[in-house]
Write a structure and sequence with these properties.
CATH topology: Rossmann fold
Strand content: 25-35%
Radius of gyration: 17 Å
CATH architecture: 3-Layer(aba) Sandwich
CATH class: Alpha Beta
Distance between the termini: 33 Å
Number of helices: 10
Order of helices and strands: EEEHEEHEHHHHHEHEHEEH
Oligomer: single chain
Number of strands: 10
Number of domains: 1
Bound molecules: adenosine-5'-triphosphate, magnesium ion
CATH superfamily: P-loop containing nucleotide triphosphate hydrolases
């Protein structure tokens, strides 16, 4: 589905990603894990086209994405929920959700006038708060809004960067349920950066461990053992 081949990326003179290889299988939930600063967010931004790569190739369904803008990649079906969820605080929940509609219209050729009802079935709180300003929602509600906004485009692949950072357990549970439901019922492919081991184990099907800008271990989630955790995740 998405292939990342020998990708190098630099910020100024500092190399962050080093010949990184990663294969995302359609219908999988792949959890990318690793300590702070290993390059997880950088990798997701490179996939989304928010950062240029120096060398290597990123493809989706066999087509190279290297020269495509982030906007074009969204049209191609990549949904992205950034770390720290940047919703528009001054816009209402409804306005935040509507932002995805024109992209979806371009993508699927039907131009829906309304936010798909499905979003409100997944996150009922968004319906209750439709006219409230995004910035007035709690952190957990803002995260649900950020995920809802990405889902408005009906992505083929959903990329989530630490969706549970600083969020209370009942909302973490709901977010996990939504990811599992979309994956099971619609075959949505998910790339998830997650540091919380419990959540990663519950939701992830595959894990990829990162260290110093490389993938250093890859397996099914049930094979994430204590020695790998100690070596690559424990602080
Ligand atoms: N805009 C930037 N300019 C320069 N260096 C950056 C920039 N953004 C990130 N870095 C550096 O790149 C490295 C990787 O950062 P990145 O955000 O990808 O890590 P991460 O694995 O997502 O960490 P975290 O778990 O803290 O979110 C870090 O050393 C970081 O300081
Ligand atoms: Mg990060």
């Amino acid at each position: 589905m998405i292939s990342i081949n020998k990708v190098d990326q630099l910020y100024g003179g500092t190399q962050i990603l080093w010949g990184l290889n990663l294969e995302i299988v359609p219908g999988s939930i792949t959890c990318i894990m690793g300590r702070n600063g290993v390059g997880k967010t950088t990798l997701l931004k490179a996939i989304m086209g928010l950062l240029p790569i120096k060398s290597g190739e990123i493809t989706m369904e066999g087509e190279t994405l290297n020269k495509q803008s982030a906007e074009k990649r969204a049209y191609s079906g990549i949904g992205y929920v950034p770390q720290g969820r940047d919703i528009f605080p001054m816009l209402t929940v409804e306005e935040n959700l509507r932002i995805g509609l024109p992209v979806r219209g371009k993508r699927t050729k039907d131009s829906p006038k309304d936010i798909p009802e499905k979003i409100f079935e997944l996150f009922p709180v968004l319906k209750d708060m439709l006219h409230r300003r995004g910035g007035d929602l709690s952190g957990g509600q803002q995260q649900q809004l950020a995920i809802g906004r990405a889902l408005v485009l009906e992505p083929k692949v959903l990329i989530l960067d630490e969706p549970n950072e600083g969020i209370q357990p009942n909302i973490v549970k709901q977010i996990g349920d939504v990811i599992l439901k979309l994956n099971a019922e619609e075959g949505l492919t998910v790339i998830l950066v997650e540091q919380k081991l419990g959540f990663a184990r519950r939701v992830g099907k595959e894990f990829r461990l990162m260290e110093k800008g490389r993938i250093v271990a890859a397996d099914k989630m049930e094979n994430l053992n204590d020695s790998l955790i100690k070596q690559y995740l424990a602080v």
